[in-house]
Amino acid sequence: MSAELHLALIERTAAAIAAHAEELTRLDQAIGDGDHGVNLRRGFEAIAADKEALAALPAADALQKAGMTLVMKVGGASGPLYGSLLMGMAKAAKAGEPLARQLSAGIALVMQRGKADVGAKTMLDVLVPVRDALERHADAAPEEALAAVRAAADAAREATRDMLATRGRASFLGERSRGHYDPGATSSQLLIHAVCDVLEARA
Amino acid sequence: MSAIVGIVIVSHSADVARGTADMVRQMVGEEVPCAFCGGNPAGGLGTDPGQIQAAIAKVWSAAGVAVLVDLGGAEMNAEMAIELLGDGRGEKVRVCNAPLVEGAVIAAVEASGGADLAAVCAAAEELSP
């Protein structure tokens, strides 16, 4: 059962990144170094190439291994950042924490690795509101919680458009970073929707 | 004589890394162990934790290793690579908060005089505003 879920999550997230790689690259060309789409695609392709082995592992070990794959294969800042997210989640999963707490542990590692907080126009500006939505709907029906998570991800990504970037390559642009969606926030939104697609189909 | 601190140069560009290493050697010759890496795992611009670990291994010294990086992703990948080193070796490796080219040259000069890791990093970091 859990192997089947892992497989679906890996396939769906990898497909979402592959389908939107060019869009992510375009966003990154506007305010960064233009490698976000191609880098993430390489990382998720490497995870997908190992999907049978990952699916057979307990969730915490699969998260840890997938995180390490992103660290080693991506080659840009998104590798250590998404890798840290998954490895932080792995640690909390191993301790038997629920999903919102796993996400919190991942977010804490991303903040530490990127020396960033919310409001800097980064992936954290999607991940943190998503975690908050999950927490608020801890006791809700799965469909309702997932809908709230999707809505939170969309609104949060939208809000990055007018933010001033203060971390990462986009911060070099200063005021000119406003008016563009953040590529990392966008890839986080895509991944959240991909995970919701899978969980919804099983709810 | 005590061990000399090793220098690792990490850039998004292999050309920049190689050129910086050339400038270091011009100053200190082969006295100071110096390794460099640049480029992502697919050969494009970027950085690669595996290559960074290999570069650290190449200049490994009992006195430690100072790592100079260029932009954000290089710093994060270097920190990641160091944390993933086994046997507590990560304790003897530091990422310097300094400009790449100037920092590498000054760190190497400091290392060539037998300075310890903290002094080597401090010399490079004095360049940062």
Layout of strands and helices, then pairs:
The complex is a heterodimer of chains A (203) and B (129).
Chain A: H1 2-31, H2 36-49, H3 51-56, H4 59-73, H5 78-94, H6 99-114, H7 124-136, H8 142-160, H9 183-202
Helix pairs in contact in A: 1-2, 1-9, 2-4, 4-5, 5-6, 6-7, 7-8, 7-9, 8-9
Chain B: E1 6-11, H1 14-28, E2 34-38, H2 49-58, E3 65-69, H3 72-83, E4 93-96, H4 100-112, H5 117-125
Parallel strand pairs in B: 1-2, 1-3, 3-4
Characterise the protein shown here.
The complex is a heterodimer of chains A (203) and B (129). With 203 residues, chain A is mainly α. Chain A has one domain (2-202): Serine Threonine Protein Phosphatase 5, Tetratricopeptide repeat (Alpha Horseshoe). Helix content of chain A is 74%, strand content 0%. In chain A, helix 5 (78-94) packs antiparallel against helix 6 (99-114) and helix 8 (142-160) runs antiparallel to helix 9 (183-202). The longest helix of chain A has 30 residues, at 2-31. Chain A starts with a helix and ends with a helix. The N and C termini of chain B lie far apart (34 Å). Chain B has one domain: Phosphotransferase system, mannose-type IIA component (Rossmann fold, 3-Layer(aba) Sandwich). Chain B has a 4-stranded parallel beta sheet, with helices on both faces. Chain B is an alpha/beta fold. Chains A and B meet through helix 2, helix 4 and helix 5 of A and helix 3 of B.
- Strand share of the residues of chain A? under 5%
Instruction: Look up the CATH topology of chain A.
Output: Serine Threonine Protein Phosphatase 5, Tetratricopeptide repeat
Helices of chain A, by number, come to 9
The description of the largest β-sheet of chain A is: none
What is the CATH level 1 assignment of chain B?
A: Alpha Beta
Number of helices of chain B: 5
The major sheet of chain B is characterized as: 4 strands, parallel
Count the E strands of chain B: 4
Return the string of H and E elements of chain B.
Answer: EHEHEHEHH
Shape of chain B: globular
Q: What is the CATH first-level class name of chain A?
A: Mainly Alpha
